[in-house]
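A.,

Following up on our hallway conversation. Structure tokens first:
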């Protein structure tokens, strides 16, 4: 393929002619972390010496929720194995290739022996961070990891990672800023989705138990067994109906597992596991086939199937497990459970509110997936210079 004018072929692909391809150890220093001395252990009691484990490392930064600490009397023996807010960490054992920055709150924390410290960085630190998080490096890590008792990434390999570098720090920082903006959008969407899910969970607790009533409805809710509202139906073996070009999904406790050329049930229903995963109700309103480890529900008219699905989601199903081995539910047990139930029209109104919340969350999740996809494309284009932000 003919190269675009102003570009050259390199080890990491096509990059601009004025970019350099440097090894990581030519733009930084890479050193190992350190474990605690034999016989000593970390403590939950806060000291002046936080300790960063691989389990604390997240996407681009450290999760402080479960951070642990080095005892004060142990610290002097490992004090030279610290990492600072100007540095980058990279995990080298277990979960390989997780990279990020150290939050200011734990600047100078001790670093696990299962990670390395990248310090004395001469290029843009944030630009380098994005290169290390990108497929340019992550694909290399996937291909070179050595497998022993656990996956391991050798220090000598890390030092030789190829880093494409724009000629000026200004261009490096412009790229990092653009990718940081993309990350900020992703983070804001993640936080919004988490908030919406929390709001929905609260609404379920109030609306499905009658603690909060919708406008226009009154009258007492009645205690009813689930058996008064629905009848549990048994799934069947899928072997006789399996057909890769079939019109109907075959459903199991984990979701769809194939296609069928006929359906078992074709009305709105609630599905619940008979064996295995017994605590993840599913809602279905199109024809399907259900396997024998998955119950379906024949909803008694005029009750609302979607309301009953949401109500199923509040039931602690594992408390009703009837087996000592693989978790199991019995149809009679399900039908005997009692709930407070409103009249069908109020059931439908509640289900509509919760369905609208689900639709809003699903729309945000779609937007989040697109934002992540756009960022991946940006990384590919910006970190290889295919798109230049500064000429």
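Then the amino acids I'd put at each of the 391 positions:
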């Amino acid at each position: 393929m003919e190269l675009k004018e102003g570009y050259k072929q390199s080890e990491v692909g096509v990059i601009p002619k004025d970019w350099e391809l440097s090894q990581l150890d030519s733009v930084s220093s890479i050193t190992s972390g350190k474990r605690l001395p034999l016989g000593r252990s970390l403590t939950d009691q806060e000291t002046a010496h936080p300790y960063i484990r691989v389990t604390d490392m997240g996407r681009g930064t450290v999760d402080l929720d479960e951070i642990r600490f080095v005892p004060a009397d142990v610290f002097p023996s490992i004090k030279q194995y610290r990492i600072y807010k100007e540095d980058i960490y990279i995990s080298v054992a277990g979960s390989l290739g997780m990279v990020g920055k150290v939050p200011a709150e734990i600047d100078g924390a001790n670093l696990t022996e299962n990670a390395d410290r990248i310090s004395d960085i001469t290029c843009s630190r944030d630009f380098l961070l994005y290169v290390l998080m990108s497929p340019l490096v992550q694909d290399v890590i996937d291909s070179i990891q050595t497998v022993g008792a656990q996956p391991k990434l050798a220090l000598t390999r890390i030092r030789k990672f190829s880093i494409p570098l724009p000629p000026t720090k200004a261009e490096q920082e412009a790229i990092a800023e653009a990718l940081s903006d993309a990350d900020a959008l992703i983070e804001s969407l993640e936080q919004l989705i988490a908030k919406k899910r929390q709001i929905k969970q609260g609404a379920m607790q109030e609306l499905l138990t009658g603690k909060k009533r919708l406008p226009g409805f009154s009258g007492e809710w009645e205690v009813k067994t689930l058996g008064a509202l629905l009848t549990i139906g048994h799934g069947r073996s899928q072997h006789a109906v399996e057909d890769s070009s079939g019109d109907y999904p075959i459903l199991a406790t984990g979701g769809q597992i194939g296609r069928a050329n006929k359906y078992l049930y074709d009305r709105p229903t609630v599905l619940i596991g008979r064996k295995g995963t017994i605590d993840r109700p599913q809602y279905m309103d199109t024809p399907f086939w259900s396997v024998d480890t998955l119950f379906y529900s024949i909803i008694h008219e005029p009750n609302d199937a979607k309301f009953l699905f949401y109500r199923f989601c509040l039931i602690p199903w594992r408390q009703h497990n009837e087996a000592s081995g693989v978790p199991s539910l019995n149809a009679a047990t399900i039908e005997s459970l009692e709930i407070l139930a409103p009249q069908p029209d109020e059931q439908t109104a509640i289900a509509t509110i919760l369905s609208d919340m689900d639709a809003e969350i699903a729309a945000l999740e779609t937007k989040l997936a697109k934002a992540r996809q756009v960022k991946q494309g940006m990384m590919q284009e910006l970190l290889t210079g295919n798109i230049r932000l500064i000429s």
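The two ends are 24 Å apart (CA to CA). Curious whether your intuition agrees with the design.

B.
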